[in-house]
Write a structure and sequence with these properties.
Elements: E1 9-12, E2 16-19, E3 23-24, H1 40-52, E4 57-59, H2 68-77, E5 85-90, E6 92-93, E7 101-102, H3 106-120, E8 125-130, H4 139-151, E9 155-161, H5 165-172, E10 179-183, H6 192-200, E11 204-208, H7 215-228, H8 232-243, H9 256-263, H10 272-279
Parallel strand pairs: 3-4, 4-5, 5-8, 8-9, 9-10, 10-11
Antiparallel strand pairs: 1-2, 6-7
Helix pairs in contact: 1-2, 3-4, 7-8
Length: 288
Amino acid sequence: MTSKSPAGPVTLGGELTVHRLGYGAMRLTGAGVWGPPKDRAGALAVLRRAVELGVNFIDTADSYGPDVSEELIAEALAPYPKDLVIATKGGWVRTGPGIWAHNATPSHLRKAVEGSLKRLHLDRIDVYQLHIPDPIVSLEASVGTLAELRSEGKIRLIGLSNVTREHIERARKIVPIVSVQNRYSFADREWDYVVDYCTQNGIAFIPWFPLGAGQAAKDAVQRIAGAHGAKPMQVALAWLLQRSPLMLPIPGTSSVEHLEENMLAGSLRLSEQEFKELAVVPELAFSR
């Protein structure tokens, strides 16, 4: 099985062009996004297979494990293919399974970037994202620190995650923002206006959790999947790819089989009626 990347390309910041189906590496860790995976060899195999299939954008974070996801990426793929873009994030700290605490202070972000550089075996991180705004630290202080690290050559491009349009506009006054990563799917449309804003301003939108769990969403996507001889996740990903030319889905999985299925979504085209039907699914029911 090979991939010719039928989903097409997206360019980040006018500098890095990647295929529009990436891979999210959160699920390679243990339960609760904590600790090592039960099957380390399997996790490494998924990463290597992703690259074989044409994936050249991998998204991770220092909080996944913590550290585990970044370490696995380096173990599986370093030295990296020339066209591989690794995006990582900082701004959460972890003390246990399922526990997430804010820390986007300048001092923490500096340590986080240094740690990611070391674990990923990189001299410069292609895309570094503020994982989430810190409620007790000004956004300007957090983003300003990332801008300084960019000037120092440790970060190439900067993105944001879990943000509003206001956050994006404030950040863009400090430094160019090339990507925004928020929860989004055909049935979870809370951030529609952010998708539109990003599309209008040449900012890649990276949706996480692309498949809805509400019953109405399940019924609609399963029926459309059946009509195409496809899997529900493939339909969900195809909808995202048709939603915006700057959409960059990063479906995550710890299974090579599911990875291969997900990558086939790039060649699935929904009819206009199918696209519209999924766009108005009335149920919202999702979890992180």
